């Protein structure tokens, strides 16, 4: 039974990571557009959601089931804390990671990138956000591929 649960957690982590990577690729394609300013909200929506899914892939590696992951909602800061408490502190030490999560967390949770909104937040530079996402995806892939259970 324990082996089955570990396999299920590994599969769940891989599914979350694969979707995070696809959002990351889409964000990269938007970032390469000459008119990034016109696609700023979709770009940050993709980066934010890829970050959320990547962090949830790490949390799933610790045994969280789909219901628990859904209950976390779109709270990037909570997902970051949970990933760290599951033994990932050494994997998430990049100070830019904390800065990007802090900047993108509130508008992502408010879904401000998905809908027209009068709310505004100070956002990171797109290149910094994308580089940080790539950094996170790389670390997440290492954890998921190693089958390490937190």
What does this structure look like?
The chain is an all-alpha fold and 150 residues long. It has one domain: Up-down Bundle (Four Helix Bundle (Hemerythrin (Met), subunit A)), CATH 1.20.120. Helices cover 71% and strands 0% of the residues. The protein has helices at 2-31, 40-61, 66-71, 76-88, 95-109, 126-146. α1 (2-31) runs antiparallel to α2, α1 packs antiparallel against α6 (126-146) and α2 packs across α5. The model has no long low-confidence stretch (mean pLDDT 87).
Q: Which range best describes the helical content: under 10%, 10-25%, 25-40%, 40-55%, 55-70% or over 70%?
A: over 70%
**Overall mean pLDDT:** 87
Q: Which structural class matches the secondary elements?
A: mainly alpha
* Cα shape: globular
Largest sheet: none
CATH architecture: Up-down Bundle
- Indicate the radius of gyration in whole angstroms: 15 Å
End-to-end C-alpha gap: 18 Å
Q: Count of helical segments?
A: 6
Quick description:
This protein has helices at 2-31, 40-61, 66-71, 76-88, 95-109, 126-146. By secondary structure, the chain is mainly alpha-helical.
Properties at a glance:
mainly alpha; 150 residues; Four Helix Bundle (Hemerythrin (Met), subunit A)
Task: Chart the SSEs and their pairings.
Elements: H1 2-31, H2 40-61, H3 66-71, H4 76-88, H5 95-109, H6 126-146
Helix pairs in contact: 1-2, 1-6, 2-4, 2-5, 2-6
